[in-house]
Amino acid sequence: MTQSRTRISKAVIPAAGLGTRFLPATKATPKEMLPVVDKPAIQYVVEEAVTAGLSDVLMVTGRNKRPLEDHFDRNYELEEVLVRKGDETRLARVQESSDLATMHYVRQGDPKGLGHAVLCAAPHVGDQPFAVLLGDDLIDARDPLLARMVDVQERHGGSVIALMEVDPAQIHLYGCAAVKPTVDDDVVQVTGLIEKPDPADAPSNYAVIGRYVLDPAVFGVLRETEPGRGGEIQLTDALQALASSPDLGGPVHGVVFKGRRYDTGDRGDYLRAIVRLACEREDLGPEFREWLRRYVTEEM
């Protein structure tokens, strides 16, 4: 009898950052709760995980992140008010976030970097492959990047990272991958990784973006990984070890993403993301686009 593989079901979302680029808005509000149109950014990320079949979500949080837990929990008082008003539309929207997935939370404690945040998930994840989604990157729901990455991991084993081609002058802002082609146009094998290289030292213009599907062997590598750039434990360094020594935990592949990505970690890109998503909404788009045209014309 052929033994079937266990389908990946767990997602890890690191959410312990302080959001200093958005101060003072993030002084008392987690950056993940900043609204993108009318939903907090973090809800888009959880929805993406659920759409890809990952129904078990662990958030790695820190101090002052209690609103994240509250958002994905029931609010019986608010629901009761909406029931009494007969406002079924808003009631459904309020209940949507609490019904999305099975949510879990663990605190990172010391902010020792993304690699350390992932390592905090080890007791929950166990010995199964899992996904990591960074909250600053929103992937358009029409572009199923994560589902494609899960498929590639189940076919090849090891770990899979998301890559985008960027202007070589911008590669210093990202982790960068050295790659070689495979038989699939959108899949490459990763032979090396470097965190935020100088453009002259970058092996390619393939930038690592905030989606990963990881073999649990990464936990053992992270435990042995010394602090790197910025004095933090870098996930990129652990993936470099796996890419250079596949016997540690399988190969590392990359899915080259050419779809729609919204960066909510930068103030300008955050504003652009709101405008783009609002323009595409059926309920908001027509009126908003017309206002935007008039505004741009008047300002020009």
How is the largest sheet built, in terms of strand order?
A: 8-11-9-10-12
In angstroms, what is the radius of gyration? 20 Å
- Stretches where pLDDT is under 50 for at least 5 consecutive residues are none
The CATH homologous superfamily of the largest domain is named Spore Coat Polysaccharide Biosynthesis Protein SpsA, Chain A
Total beta strand runs: 13
The proportion of residues in beta strands is 15-25%
Structural class: alpha/beta
Q: Mind describing the biggest β-sheet?
A: 5 strands, mixed, barrel
The N- and C-terminal alpha carbons lie at a distance of: 69 Å
The count of domains is 2
Helix content: 25-40%
* Number of alpha- plus pi-helical segments: 11
In short:
The protein has 300 residues and is of the alpha/beta class. It is built from eleven helices and 13 strands.
